[in-house]
Amino acid sequence: MTEALPPEQERLVDAVKQRAERRRRARGLPSFARNFGQIGVLGWQIVVPALIALAIGRWLDHRLSSGIFWTAPLLILGVSLGCWSAWKWIGRQ
């Protein structure tokens, strides 16, 4: 059913396989670990500014006895800043 290829065709098949392998490696597809690391970096880029803004807002509300007057807007500002920073970082990648 499967006949052996002549030597010329075998060399051609091997050359095509090698070229396909080289092309795949040249594309530089990132590994799973690299993608996973990038997701972690993005998460921290959003969470850290949000937590800092939350802490500042809570401190201001405690000092001024103002409920959540400062916490809520600063939290929104921190998340917005983190998302903007993550967006810029993705653009550079």
TrEMBL record:
It comes from the Bacteria. Keywords: Membrane, Transmembrane, Transmembrane helix. InterPro entries: ATPase_gene1 (IPR011744), ATPase_put (IPR032820). The chain crosses the membrane at residues 32-56, 68-87. NCBIfam families: ATPase_gene1 (TIGR02230). This is AtpZ/AtpI family protein. It comes from Sphingomonas echinoides.
